[in-house]
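Researcher: Structure for this, please.
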Amino acid sequence: MVIAAVFGMAMSVSAQDVTTSKYGVDSVATVTNLSIYREAYKQWEQAKFAPEAATAEMVNAWRYVFLNGPRASQYTYTNGEKILDYLIRTNPSQKDAYIDTLNMLADTRAISFPTDPKTGLSQVANIKAKKGYLIYSYNKNRYEEAYNVLKEAVALDVDHNQIQVGFLDAYFRAAADMVNNGKAEKMTVIDVYQELSDVLDDNIKVLAEKETELLAAKEASADDAEAVANFDKQLEKNEKNINNYKGVKNNIDNLFEPFASCEDLLKVFTAKMAEKPDDIALLQRITTILDKKDCTDSKLFFDASKHLHELDPSPESAYNLGQRCFKDKKYGEAANYFEQATKSSNNDRVFRAYRNLAYCYLNTGSFSKGREAARKAAQVDPTAGEPYIIIGMLYAESASQFSGDLESKAVYWAAVDKFQKARSMDASVAKRASDLIAAYSQYFPPMETIFFNDYAEGQSYNVGGWIGETTTIRARK
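Model: Predicted structure, C-alpha cell format:
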C-alpha cells in the first residue's frame, strides 16, 4: 500500500521540540498542510473511513503538521490515532512500527497539551493511560511495555479523576500477563488489584453522591418541566457512568479470581507479613483483600486485623475485627466494631458495616436497632436488595412478640413485602428472596382466621408494635 510506505518512511523522523509559535518555524507551510489534511480527513470521515478515501495526500499533510507544528491542534493527535488505527488493521506486518508511532504521538501530545484547553485540567495521566491501553489492545505480546506505561499513568492520577475507566481494565490484564509469564511475582497482581479497587470505589462513590445531588435538585425543580428534563438527562448520563465503573470493577474481580484462592493469598501474605510486620500499608492490603475474597477465617486475617488496629485504629481495622467477632458469634463485640466501621470514607465498606451491624442485631433480637441499621445500609446503596431481606427477617423473627391469631401472623405479610421489594430491585438477591417468600408465605393465616376477624383478602392492614407498617391481607394457599 502506497500510504503505508509513505507513512512508515515519514515517521522515522522525530517530532521537533515545542517552539514559541504553535505552528512551528514555517507557520505558513504548517497552516497550509493543516487545511489540506483536515479537508481530506473530513472527506474520509464522511466516507465512513472507507479504504479508497484514505489518501496519501491526507497522510503527508497530517505528518507535516505533527512534525512541524505539534501544538497546532489537539485534533492532530485524535485524528492521528484514527489514521494509525486504520494502518494497523490494514497492514498487520507493520503493526509494531505503527504502535511505536502511536507511542510517539502520545508522548508528544503530553508535552504539547499537558492540560485540556477546554477544561484547563491536567490530562497527562489519561494520555499516558490511553497509550498503554492502545499498546496492549493492538499487541498483547507487548504486555510488559503496556504494564509499565499504565503503572506510571495510574501513579500520576493521584486524585483518581483523570483516567477513563476503560483503560484501567487493560492495566490489570497486563499485570496478570506479567505474573503468568514469570516477569513479576504474584504480589504484583495483588497490588494492582488493590490499587484499582481504590480508584474504582472512589469514582463510584463520587458518582453516587452526584446522583443524590441531582435527584434533590430535580425534586426542587419539580414545577419546571424543562429543568426536570435536563436533570433526567444528567441522571441518565451519571447512571451510565456508574454502570461503566461497576462493569470494570466486576471484570477485574473476575480476572483476579485465579490469583485469589485463599490458599494462595495466605501463602503470599504470610511471607510478606513476616518480612514487614509493622508495615501499616501492607496490613491494610492484607486485611482488605482477604475480606473481599472471604478468607476471614484464617489466623492471618485476625492477627493482621488486630495488629493494624493497634498500630493505626481506623474504621477499616474495626470492620475487620468485627468480621472475626461475628464469625465467632460474639455479636455484641462485633456490633461495637461495625458501629465504628460505619465512619469509613469508603462507601462500599460503610454499606457492609451497616449491613453486618443489622445482622448482629438480628442475632441478638434487637429488632428495632437492626431495622435502623438496615435502613442506613439502604441509604448508602439504594440499589442493594439485601437490606430489605434483613428487615423482612427481622419482622419474621419478631412474630413471637405479637399475640392473637391474626396479629402474630400479620408480621409475615410485612416480612414478605420486604422480600418482594428486594427481589424486584436487585437480581443478585432474587433467588434468596424467592426462597424466603416461599418459606414465610406458609405462615400466612388461613382464610377462616381472616374471615372470623372481619377482614377479607386484599384489604389493608396496619401491623402495630415496633413494626408500624401497613400491608395487604393474604391467606395461606
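Researcher: Any notable elements?
Model: Residues 1-6, 8-16 have pLDDT under 50 and may be disordered. The longest strand covers residues 460-463.
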